[in-house]
Amino acid sequence: MKHLILSLIILSGAYAHATKLKVVTTLPDVAEVVQAIGGEFVDVQSLLKGSEDPHYSEARPDFILKVNRADIVCAVGLDLEIGWLPKILEKAGNAKVQSGGPGFCVLGAKVTALDIPGGVINRSLGDVHPHGNPHFMLSLEKIADSGAEVVRVLSLALPEKASVFEKNYEAFKRRLSDSKKELAAQLKKVKVLEYHKEFTYFFNSYGLESLGSLEEKPGMPPSAARIAKVAQLAKENKVVVLFATVSAPHKVLERFQELSGVRVVQLPSYVQNLDKSSAKSIIELQNILVKAIP
Amino acid sequence: MKHFFFLLMALGPSIAFAQSLLQNIQTAAAIDITAPFNFENSTENKLDIRSAELAFFGPLDPTFDAYVNFAAHNEDGEFTAEVHEAYMGSSKLIPSSRFKVGKFFLGVGRLNQYHQHDWAFTSAPRVQREFFGEEGVADSGAEFSTLLPTDRFWDITVGVTNGYTYGHSHEAGAKPHVPTHYVHVVNFADLAETGALQWGFNYLGRTDALATQTQLYGLDFTFKRSAGRITDLLVQSEIWYRNQKAVGEPTKEEAGAYVFPQWALTEQVFLGLRVDLFTELSRKFQTEDSSQGNLNYGLVPALTYKHSEFTLFRLSYGYDVQTIQGESDQLQQKIELQLVSILGAHPAHSF
After folding, report:
1. Chain B contact for A294, CB < 8 A?
2. Within a domain: A3
């Protein structure tokens, strides 16, 4: 009898392991949130490595295959992945993870976005996001907010573990909050700029005064006149640094630095699943950004 | 006046409901302007709208989606508007699968699945023109695609369409002996830092109303290497073989291919060079029963400037030579300007 009970316990453990939810995320940042909340009940993989620009990614067939096998798909939302994720969801033929399905999870749904455009929205404004700036994964507070969506979707898939997910979520929020306090203590309140509005949430989160972006219109390289104008503004306002990602045009950045004398730093804006990267987690990425502020 | 107010009150909720429903319909429009300058024949050298398209798409209900595309083409100076594609389908009903029923571009090869304004070059290579027509083959029927439950990506598409006509046609056509039927098997390989390759095997068959039997076999390749926000190297190619057997006539065999490598010079400027080949394998001298060698080859360099994701300008030069054994070579050259504008819904970033 004892052996039978032992066998049942072992088998039930094996079953629990086999029934891990397969979660596919668009970005490593999202994967980290899901892992933190889902713990041992999820098997998470990210489609992108974090070194790509998620605005411009493509519906690769290997992504389609991963989404086909997923129980849950989690995305940033706010139209960040609009160019490629809908195509992947369509081609994967997996009803439960498509929009409206129980396994479709959009973290941006639980975030109060910045930069929501008003008035008439069209492409004369550049590549605008009508629902607001989607780069909220650089704000620890917004990441904490977004986790509520992960709890909702995981709990729907495994209702019996809902309390575990809620507990993990609370612990995750505390970790983020503690890290935020430590990092904020290291920062001076300086004036900053960014090339594209990818670091807005980071600046906003730490109370850094941003003079805006070098791009006049999102997704459109700035004109020579715009570079000169912003360089002049940066000098007058004693801006100390401009943040840009590696995909920002080098010549534009060089020209800005030359005209303004302001330091330009190229930084990751997403967690990266790369061996050589030092931004392998949300907190590591925050550390890198904080250290880049003079 | 009172009746007018009553009417407004009665209609109010239904108008609001209709507006809210319409928010779920996505719209997109594409304008494709070309200006060919033929060196040898200048009669059609003018800037003109090659096509203007208007598309609506969205979910019909929680299970089905629909897509309709109206296109107006300039045909001999007159704009002919037509339903280019109109189908309903689902990717939710059958696990790992999707299907569509209606009129659509057949899911074979690479170029045939994309509208001309989405191509990486302006005009069709000879093999496309000969086997599918300048625009590609659209027909009414049903298409089913499924992902195989394997560790690697294998996507199989099969389709059957009426086959009354083939290629671009404004006529009703005639009932074929065997409708158009096709299969497309697609595989993908992630080559890590080197890039990624998608390739497919294609078969298409049809026997028309005159009992002419057509069989097409082809391979398509798309290689991409991405860097940051752009594809810094694209290599696209298709290789096709066709045999046609008409009643009382010998089998006609033809083969053709194109390969198009394109490099990113900057984030917005791309340089490509298409190499085209086409030959009629079964060609014989008229006076004797021996094979007559022939080869049509072309070089088409193309310079593309993408102002944004929604606007591009392209300049290309075509150098096309037809060689036939025993005959003098025929050279055709042309320069083409193209402007493509996309309005409305964000275009899909397909691989």
Report:
1. no
2. no
CB-based contact, A92 to chain B, within 8 Å: yes
Q: Of A147, A182, A217, which closes a domain?
A: A182
Torsion of CA B21, B26, B27, B30, to 10 degrees: -170
Four-residue CA torsion sign, A49, A55, A58, A64: positive
* pLDDT tens by residue, A49-99: 998 989 999 999 999 999 999 999 999 999 999 999 999 999 999 999 999
Q: Which of B284, B293, B338 is nearest to B311 (CA)?
A: B338
Nearest Cα neighbor of B331 from B320, B341, B340 is B320
The Cα–Cα gap between A77 and A137 comes to 11
CB A203 within 8 A of CB A192: yes
Q: Which fold has domain B26-344?
A: Porin (2.40.160)
What tens digit of pLDDT does each residue of B276-288 get? 999 999 999 988 8
Say if residues B157 and B186 touch (Cβ distance below 8 Å).
yes
Residue A191, strand partner residues: A209
Q: What is the pLDDT of residues A190-240, one digit of tens each?
A: 999 999 999 999 999 999 999 999 999 988 889 999 999 999 999 999 999
Contacts of B84 (CB under 8 A, 6+ apart): B53, B69, B70, B71, B103, B115, B138
Co-location of A97 and A207 in the same domain? no
Beta carbons within 10 angstroms of residue B94's beta carbon: 13
Q: Which two tokens stand for residue B40?
A: 């040898």
Pure H helices in A19-101: 28-38, 61-68, 85-92
Cβ–Cβ below 8 Å for B226 and A52: yes
List all residues of chain A from 120 to 159 with a beta carbon under 8 Å from chain B: 123, 127
**Residues A178 and A190 occupy one common structural domain:** no
Q: What is the ipTM of this complex?
A: 0.89
Structural domains in chain A (count): 2
CATH number at residue A53: 3.40.50.1980
- Chain A positions in Cβ-Cβ contact with residue B228 (cut-off 8 Å): 52-53, 56, 246-247
